[in-house]
Amino acid sequence: MMLRSLAAALIAVTAVGFASTAPALAAPAPPDEKGIAYQPDVVGGSPAPAYSFAVSLQNLSGSHFCGASVVHAKWAITARHCVVGKSPGSIQARVGSSNRTTGGQVVGVTSITTHPSYDIAVIGLTTVNALYPPIVIAASSGAVGTSTRIMGWGQTCPSPGGCGAPIQLQQLNTSIVADGGCAGVNAAQEICTSNPGGVAGACYGDSGGPQVKTVGGAWQLVGATSRSGGGSTCAVAPSIYMDVPHFRPWIQGVTGLPL
What we know:
This protein is mainly beta. The chain has helices spanning 80-83, 248-255, and strands at 46-47, 54-59, 64-72, 75-78, 91-95, 105-114, 121-125, 136-137, 147-152, 170-175, 190-193, 210-215, 218-228, 239-243. The chain folds into 2 domains: 46-50 and 136-246, Thrombin, subunit H (Beta Barrel), CATH 2.40.10; 54-134 and 247-255, Trypsin-like serine proteases (Thrombin, subunit H, Beta Barrel). It is built from 2 helices and 14 strands; from the N terminus they run E-E-E-E-H-E-E-E-E-E-E-E-E-E-E-H. It is globular and about 40 Å long. The relative contact order is 0.25.
């Protein structure tokens, strides 16, 4: 991330991520950009309402394996490690529901484009209903201290494989922290995100899902869940998110749209 140190060492995109290891519209008022007035309490998170842009990526039997964010009626952003090696016809996306088994809209995946070097991917979708508006990609992810929120259907216990994916979407208020808090972070392309109290954060099954902040009272997308910033046990260290605004030129090239 350009607003923070660029000195971190590069790591391979094949590093262990938070893809699931288990078989498997309106939101409350967001925090302001100064971190004031968080309303809700992912490991250590709390049940979330439906977010119109939040996606549960599933196999065709409905088993959740990763998250994603709708950025256009026909496009979503996820993590590369979620979809590499998969065919579009083997994936469906449930959009706009807080329950990964019902509600919202189930759409097909028409294409998968993975970044050649980093843990981010663009997936094409059959058209998402206008009832579920996309999220805008932020102009920048923000400086250290920026208040953010993460969400997903990942494990709610920290040990790998220790519990399955919850049915209900979970959310957690976090913030951007210094890159030094995340082992192996690629500073120019990634975001180091806090683990509140040393006990809360992203976990297996959250990969690809949204990290958001507010701009002018509306949610905007800053990150896509990538991996732990410190070992295989979730939430004991900050987590690493792909800096989605950094990849805007590549995303525009894939979609042909001014996102």
